[in-house]
Each structure stands twice: as C-alpha cells, then as structure tokens.
Design brief:
There is one protein chain. The chain has 277 residues and is mainly beta. It has one domain (3-8, 15-276): Jelly Rolls (Sandwich), CATH 2.60.120. 3% of the residues lie in helices and 49% in strands. It has one helix and 22 strands. Strands 2, 3, 4, 5, 6, 7, 8, 9 and 10 form a nine-stranded antiparallel beta sheet that branches. The longest helix is centred in the C-terminal third of the chain and has 8 residues, at 269-276. The protein starts with a strand and ends with a helix.
C-alpha cells in the first residue's frame, strides 16, 4: 500500500509526497494582513486555493488582486490562481487572517497563469440522504481547463453528516483506459462543527487494509487501492481533493466489482464520472 496520513500539526513546511511519478505537493499557509510567503516548487504546476480570507497573489510579474471572498470553506466556492511550471508565486494576506492551500503535481509543460473566480466553477450533486451518500463536488480546476493545465485536478467536496463519499468504492491506480486511469490523490479534511470526525478506509485486492480516524486539518495521500471515506452523523465534512494523473488528465474510476450494483442506486454517479473525464 502506498499512502500517508499527515496530522494537522505537520503542514507548515510544504512537501512533495512521493508515491510514484505522480507526486503531489501540499502546503498550508496561514497569513495575517501584510504577511507573505514566496515559493517555487521544482517540477510542479501549482494551484493557490484560498480556503478563507483574501490574498494578493503574484505569479512571476502577473498580479491577481483580491483573491478569496469567503470567511471559511463552508461559505461558497473557493477561488484559485493557477501557477505554471517554473514560476515563482508570492501570496500576501489582504484580510485580517487568511488560510491558503498551495497544491500541485508533477508536469513537463509550461503554461500560462490564470484565475478561477467562484462564479466560474462547476458543481455536481451526487448521492442522496436515503442512501447515506449525499455530497456536492465543486470543480475548481476540472476538465473545462484541459489545455490550460497539465494533469492536475482540484475540487472541493461537501458531504452531509453520516454520509459516505468515494463511494461506491473505486480505485484509479492502473493505466488501462477506457476501464481505468492512474492517478495519485490527496484529501484534506475539515468538519463542521470543528470537533467532528470521520473515517478513511484504504484497501486492495490482496486483503491489505487500514482505517484512520480523520479530524479537521488532517491530510491523507494515497496512490493505490479503494479509498471510501465517511463522516459521522451530525458532522458535515469538507474535502479539498487533489488528483494528479500519471499519464494524462482524464480520470476514469474503476468501481469495485462486488459493489457496482450501487451505481444504479446512488443518484448522480454517471454525472460525477463525466465531470472528471
């Protein structure tokens, strides 16, 4: 199994999480007004995702003012600035407090920076309360950005209390289109109320399996296996989801054969799959 759980106290320095070629960069910045950070990650394209507050973002000589319009992740869609391979990005707090996720993945092509405003994102509703699977997926960098971004996909997922996501169980660790494509993935968790918790499962055909309790601020990185997640009743869950394709941009999930019948029972599965392809 190739995975890693990072507890909330370990995000400050930023890191490349190496499982295979499709490495993922993840870093959290917490900035007060006027406080800044400058970084460049060798070999990676990046997305600056404002989780809360407002920032000024500069990519090389191009400046993006007033990025971020929500007080927290529960108050509307995020705002993103794309940072191409080889660029230097500076992020400066423009509100009393701001929290920013800098995420990215390996790429070989240089593209141009751009901004995705909240009104430009695409969303899809999946599941139902009756099937304990209701969630809303908001695509920040999705397939509509094909040609402008390499193999990086970034989305925000909102799951109702007591509901499963990443469900029915699926994997994407083998390059075998049109049945499956090979993507590494990262989840960053938040809960409402913040004292909430959930569980992350990961298992494969060999019988190897692990389970983790997830809390606000935790992050889970994986490159193999089925990986359903659940939030406990009474606790809404937010996931910042980062996917990086090893060979391409089109994500094709391979649903576990024993549970494929659920695809016809849980609403919105086909619509969800189309948004990732």
């Amino acid at each position: 199994m190739h995975h890693q759980m990072i507890r909330s106290s370990s995000h400050a320095d930023g890191r490349i999480l190496d499982g295979r070629e499709a490495s993922i960069h993840f870093q959290l910045l917490r900035l007060s007004r006027g406080q800044g950070a400058t970084l460049s990650v060798a070999g990676c394209e990046l997305a600056v995702v404002v989780l809360s507050g407002t920032c000024e973002v500069q990519v090389n000589a191009e400046r993006f003012a007033g990025v971020g319009r929500r007080p927290d992740v529960w108050s509307g869609a995020g705002e993103v600035v794309y940072v191409p391979l080889g660029a230097v990005v500076s992020v400066v707090g423009a509100s009393e407090a701001a929290e920013v996720a800098v995420v990215g993945g390996r790429t070989r092509e240089v593209r141009q920076p751009f901004r995705v405003a909240p009104e430009e994102v695409e969303a899809v509703e999946v599941g139902s309360l009756e099937t304990h699977s209701r969630r809303r997926i908001v695509h920040l960098l999705g397939q509509r950005h094909a040609g402008r971004v390499g193999n990086l996909l970034v989305s925000e997922l909102y799951a109702d209390g007591g509901c499963w996501s990443g469900y029915p169980p699926h994997k994407h660790d083998t390059e075998n289109p049109p049945e499956e494509t090979d993507f590494a993935e990262l989840y960053h968790y938040r809960f409402r109320p913040e004292s909430g918790f959930g569980a992350q499962l990961v298992y494969d055909r060999s019988g190897a399996s692990e389970a983790y309790v997830t809390r606000s601020g935790d992050t889970f990185y994986f490159t193999r296996g089925y990986h359903p997640t659940v939030t406990s009743p009474g606790h809404d869950e937010y996931l910042l989801t980062v996917l990086v394709g090893r060979h391409g941009r089109s994500l094709i999930q391979n649903f576990q054969e024993e549970h494929r019948g659920l695809m016809a029972v849980i609403p919105g599965i086909d619509a969800m799959r189309k948004k990732f392809r």
